[in-house]
Amino acid sequence: MMQSIKNVRHRISIGGTRILGMGLFVGCAALAGTHAATAADAPKGPQISRSIAKEVSDGQKALQANQFAEGLKHLQAAEAVSGLTAYDHKSIDDLKAFAYVKLNNLKAAQESYEAAIETGAANSEETTRFTKAIFSIAYSSQQYPKAIEYGKKLVDANAANGDTYQIVTQSYYLQKDCKNAVAWADKSISYARKEGETPKENLYLFKLQCAFDASDTPATIAALEDLIRLTGKTDYWNKLLRFELQDEKVDANILMIYRVMYNTDSMSSGANYVEMAQLLGDAPALPGEAEAVLEKGAAKGAIGADQKDRVGRLQTALKTRAETDKKDLTQFQAEAAKSASGELFVKLGEVYYGFGDYQNTVNSITSGLLKGQVKHLDEAYVYLGLAQAQLHNIAEAKKSFNQLKTVTNINPKVLKLWELYAERLS
After folding, report:
1. What's the whole-model pTM score?
2. Structural domains of the chain, count
3. Most C-beta atoms within 10 A of its C-beta, which of 22, 25, 86, 338?
4. Three-class HEC string of the chain
5. Is there a domain that residue 296 lies in?
6. pLDDT band at 282 (very low <50, low <70, confident <90, very high)
């Protein structure tokens, strides 16, 4: 397993995966804002002690006038008075936190919010507000253990949202705690789905990087499959298919994997184009498709200068064979019609596919499947599905790929790749 992952040339990286920094800190000013500015004016419930009423009132007026340093002086003076109640301390701490946020002294703001909670005088709404503020400040200042602590408090209080789950996940990841990062990524994904939202790509990237760093090939492949289901990005296809290719020894399976890579436009190596073309060229009836593969590789600039002579000779040979096949199509059609089995019709359909004649591909392979006695049903259903997709008949293409499950002895890896490909058809 370890060697398997190390053989992948393109390192998986999720550089720049910080979901939120100061941007998530929606402004503790906003969190503290209205509540903090009126804490001492609440008409019902506990009241500020008379001994500090003037200082608190003066402090509030200063804060409302954006005179934050002045407001803090009044609040600190009020705080120094003896005999204060828990409610007094909570109200003063709330107002001080507001002022510190406005002064961008987040460390002091955090301490004030924590002190406000510790008084025990905050109601549930205030406690949630203070907790959110501490959570935001802790994450933005890279206090990841504290961000995790307060993020979990929000989850336990049913006051969390998708960002809360993601930040707890990321906080674990940034501490290199992959066990908890993966567990919370799964919780975040479940939460998003429960809320009818699309899970964030970053959540799967955390799982991918953790699996890769642990040299866990199955988990790496599973994460890449999830990322493909989510995004369909060619980069994820490329990485997944390179994992699947590296230990495969059977030519038929290698060619199937190349077909997926080719049809997801995730083939980036000139060597892959050449090998796919050679495998197709080795099949008696597929020179036209092999020629098309090389032409696409050349058009994408994937064929290196050191490969051009070799590829040129291969293209010439394939072109000659393909031209012969085109001339023989009428005879091939007649022979297929006379045959008792459907094998020739399927092979005829594959030839049509190589020449880009997708309707005749569908017609021929369908006729062959109806006749029966087809040797390679996996190839028949794959070419049928690919041709139907090219004709934008996605529903029928999905049905064709679904038929691969009925094929005896199909390689499980190949089956899974085509099922994933079919999921992304739209």
Report:
1. 0.85
2. 3
3. 25
4. CHHHHHCCCCCCCCCCCCCCCHHHCCCHHHHHHHHHHCHHHCCCCCCCCHHHHHHHHHHHHHHHCCCHHHHHHHHHHHHCCCCCCHHHHHHHHHHHHHHHHHCCCHHHHHHHHHHHHHCCCCCHHHHHHHHHHHHHHHHHCCCHHHHHHHHHHHHHCCCCCHHHHHHHHHHHHHCCCHHHHHHHHHHHHHHHHHCCCCCCHHHHHHHHHHHHHCCCHHHHHHHHHHHHHHHCCHHHHHHHHHHHHHCCCCHHHHHHHHHHHHHCCCCCCHHHHHHHHHHHHHCCCCHHHHHHHHHHHHHCCCCCHHHHHHHHHHHHHHHHHHHHHHHCHHHHHHHHHHCCCCHHHHHHHHHHHHCCCHHHHHHHHHHHHHHCCCCCHHHHHHHHHHHHHHCCCHHHHHHHHHHHHHCCCCCHHHHHHHHHHHHCCC
5. yes
6. confident
